[in-house]
Design brief:
By secondary structure, this protein is mainly beta. The protein has 2 helices and 14 strands, in the order H-H-E-E-E-E-E-E-E-E-E-E-E-E-E-E. About 10% of the residues lie in helices and about 60% in strands. A 12-stranded antiparallel beta barrel has the order 2-3-4-5-6-7-9-10-11-12-13-14.
């Protein structure tokens, strides 16, 4: 993530110097501050968010690094089995996985994966998930809760807000996570400066014990930064994951 930030920062500096012609003018160039709001931004087709991803898997006797870029985009709508018109939020991941070391240099292999989620947003801004398409290209739907959806992101949101995600789906996925908004914090990323709600989480996802922290900006409708770790059933630490927003096009 630091390398990506450095490249973007260098590019901005060069553009600033070319455009202004002097360092004094460059000092007056301000990063846009995205002010905090408590209602989640309405979803629209064409919304797009790009993240830098860094993961470290810890296996017995070794560690394996995964890095890459992840894009979230609202690409259309679908009519679900529940009779709801939902947005299709596609996740596309381009990742490089550490394969082996050659002459003390890391070698990475590249892969691309796509998944989708069916999302609905009510008049309050609260987001619900109904199902989606997994990495194998197979469609799945929520079977628990019985109404066929769960609350993905509540709205309005404020410090002290808590919510619980517990679900099963036809693809075999299970989620049991608890979330609590513990404060606010201003976060600066290559995408800009964002006033965020800081949300801690803990629980299990597809059998893995998870604990995380996210910096969520309702004014853009997505996380600005996200970090979590996982442990296996024996309690052994298995992975650390970090995401940081580098571009937003809502």
């Amino acid at each position: 993530m630091k390398r990506i930030f450095g490249i973007l920062l260098a590019a901005l500096i060069v553009l600033g110097l070319v455009g202004c012609g002097n360092k004094t003018a460059q000092k007056h160039k301000k990063v846009v501050l995205h002010k905090l709001q408590n209602k989640v931004k309405p979803m629209h087709i064409g919304d797009k968010y790009v993240y830098a991803v860094d993961v470290m898997f810890v296996e017995p006797g070794k560690a394996q690094e995964v890095r890459g870029m992840q894009t979230l985009a609202i690409i259309g709508t679908v009519r679900t089995a529940q009779g709801v018109t939902a947005y299709v939020r596609q996740t596309e991941l381009h990742e490089q996985t550490e394969a082996k070391a050659v002459r003390d240099k890391k070698v990475f292999k590249t892969r691309t994966a796509k998944t989708s989620e069916y999302m609905y947003q009510d008049a309050t801004g609260t987001e619900f998930e109904y199902g989606g398409i997994n990495e194998a290209g197979k469609e799945f739907f929520i079977t628990e809760p019985k109404q066929g959806f769960f609350v993905f992101q509540p709205s309005p949101i404020t410090v002290g807000t808590t919510f619980h995600q517990k679900s099963k789906d036809t693809g075999g996925g299970t989620t049991d996570m608890n979330f609590k908004v513990i404060g606010t914090e201003t976060i600066t990323t290559p995408a800009g400066e964002f006033e965020c709600y800081k949300i801690e989480s803990f629980g299990t996802n597809d059998g893995a014990e998870m604990k995380g922290m996210e910096w969520y900006a309702p004014q853009i409708g997505e996380d600005v930064r996200f970090a979590y770790s996982t442990r296996d059933k024996s309690g052994k630490h298995r992975s650390n994951t970090g995401l940081q927003l580098v571009n937003v096009m809502p």
